[in-house]
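Hi everyone,

Forwarding the result from last night's run.
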Amino acid sequence: MMAKAKFDQIKGFVFDLDGVITDTSVYHSIAWHQLADKLGVTWTKTLEDGLKGISRMDSLEMILKAGNKENDYTQEEKVALATEKNDNYVNEIMKMTPANILPGIKSFLDELRSNGYLISLASASKNGPTVLDKLALTDYFPEIVDPATLSKGKPDPEIYVKGAELLNLKPEECIGVEDAAAGVQAINAANETSIGIGDPTILSEADINFKETAEMTLDAIKQAL
């Protein structure tokens, strides 16, 4: 695939959070597991995997279905259950420390900062600022896209377009970093250069692929472009 930009055109990086900077999916699983136990729904690996990447209310429906309880609650009660899950999740992420930063990410952020690159966060999670605070990375992300201002989710490019706008950069001056196929599609649709972290067969649409976060350095990106 043709890279969209030459290395020397790049001025900013727009990061996804989960699976790129840290891994919060484990905390989502813990919180849903706590709720399933409370509802008397058997927690299984299949259920856990099925909840990945889907919205809070859809996740709740999936758990209720798994226990044949989808008709046992009013919409209002369902909203309360979903809120309870989120409270469980927030309690879990409060336990995070800088030790939860994925390998190589801190040194990569230092490298970007010392080379004058601008950095923003494009995460659909409303808890993004809390997570950055726990990881002691808040200073690296002066600009954070507020998910409440978005009308569409990934793979729509909106979040990545906003991530570039916050840096006062054109999309083609930015590199977006993602670990999910829908995220890579969003970066590409925003006309930014995409880095996909993870399985290259799943992230085949990315302009640049790294299997692990630790492989991502400015030099490796320069080589790839």
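The chain has nine helices and six strands.

Cheers,
N.
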